[in-house]
């Protein structure tokens, strides 16, 4: 563990380490948490300036929570072990590894004075390695930190040379990494190079070789959040950094060797998303994407690329898919089940979900 962090973060991390066991939550006095099976994990806001990683059942009701030292963002779930990692929100100073069955915190990795986390990571398909998006402080040089799971999540390598400001990284079924490279140099969260930003979707081998890079015609579309459809197609969600009155397409599809294909909606429909896509999930027929700042989510036909449903949802955040069922979380404590085109069902959760969800398979 690297030691160079701020005093406030250090105190928070020590406090989290002291109380590193998951605290049980009884959802609205219903059946005890021991009777529920863990199915979803996400970061949440528990009170003012207090944040947690929350383990929930398949309905999005909290079973237990683990306090985080600062606001969390994305979660990676191990493909075989009952381990998960919560990443600090950009510019994050921590990643916390925990066992979601026992509630034990396994380790805290701190970013150090020269690095920060961008809030996302993913395990290799065989579960031996963890890959995390990181940046060099002062330059935003993009880094994929490589961590050895069996060696206590010790960092063993840094993959670089693909651009600045990487955000989400996902693992493709063929063991290739896909990275949403935002292209934005930041000081904290303040962008410094809007006029010259160079975003891309980058495919990287697990040993760091750049296999392919593609970009969008408008360089103000910062590629940030990713998903794949279970096969070879990557969905890219963008944050638009151009003129406020513009309403460009904020989602694209890509398959290796081809061109970026923007999804289609009317300008006034894109305007609802307020220039930002958070979470994406896809089936073989449909694509769902959320916008917390737009307080909505949309569903597109994968075949026609056209928007087929636009629905309001306050602080729409994470989305996961199970078969043909989408589940969407909300910072307003709502959970939506949408099995398009059958219809949507909204339930009340006991959690203020924040940013992203990850499903336990």
From TrEMBL:
PROSITE patterns: TAT (PS51318). It comes from the Bacteria. SUPFAM superfamilies: YVTN repeat-like/Quinoprotein amine dehydrogenase. InterPro entries: Quino_amine_DH_bsu, TAT_signal, UCP028101. Pfam families: DUF1513. Signal peptide: none annotated. This is DUF1513 domain-containing protein. It comes from Vibrio ziniensis.
């Amino acid at each position: 563990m690297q030691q160079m962090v701020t005093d406030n973060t250090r105190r928070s991390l020590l406090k989290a380490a002291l109380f590193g066991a998951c605290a049980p939550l009884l959802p609205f006095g219903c059946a005890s948490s021991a009777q529920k099976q863990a199915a979803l994990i996400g970061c949440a806001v528990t009170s003012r300036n207090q944040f947690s990683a929350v383990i929930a059942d398949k309905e999005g009701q909290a079973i237990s929570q683990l306090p985080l030292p600062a606001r969390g963002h994305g979660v990676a779930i191990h493909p075989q072990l009952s381990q998960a990692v919560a990443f600090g929100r950009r510019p994050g100073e921590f990643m916390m590894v925990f066992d979601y069955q026992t509630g034990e915190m396994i380790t805290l990795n701190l970013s150090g004075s020269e690095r920060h986390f961008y809030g996302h990571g993913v395990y290799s398909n065989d579960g031996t390695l963890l890959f995390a998006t990181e940046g060099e402080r002062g330059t935003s040089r993009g880094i994929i930190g490589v961590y050895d799971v069996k060696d206590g999540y010790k960092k063993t390598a840094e993959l670089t040379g693909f651009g600045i400001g990487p955000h989400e990284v996902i693992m493709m079924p063929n063991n290739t990494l896909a990275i949403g490279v935002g292209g934005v140099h930041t000081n904290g969260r303040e962008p410094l190079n809007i006029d010259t930003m160079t975003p891309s979707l980058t495919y990287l081998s697990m040993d760091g070789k750049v296999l392919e890079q593609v970009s969008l015609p408008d360089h103000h579309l910062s590629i940030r959040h990713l998903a794949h459809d279970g096969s070879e197609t990557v969905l890219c969600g963008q944050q638009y950094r151009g003129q406020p009155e513009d309403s460009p397409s904020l989602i694209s599809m890509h398959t290796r060797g081809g061109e970026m294909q923007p999804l289609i909606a009317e300008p006034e429909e894109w305007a609802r998303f307020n220039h930002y896509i958070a979470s994406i999930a896809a089936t073989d027929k449909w694509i769902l994407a959320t916008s917390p700042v737009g307080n909505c989510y949309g569903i597109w036909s994968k075949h026609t690329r056209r928007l087929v449903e636009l629905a309001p949802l306050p602080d729409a955040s994470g989305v996961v898919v199970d078969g043909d069922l989408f589940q969407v979380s909300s910072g307003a404590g709502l959970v939506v089940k949408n099995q398009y085109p059958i219809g949507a069902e909204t339930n009340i959760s006991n959690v203020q979900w924040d940013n992203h969800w990850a499903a336990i398979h």
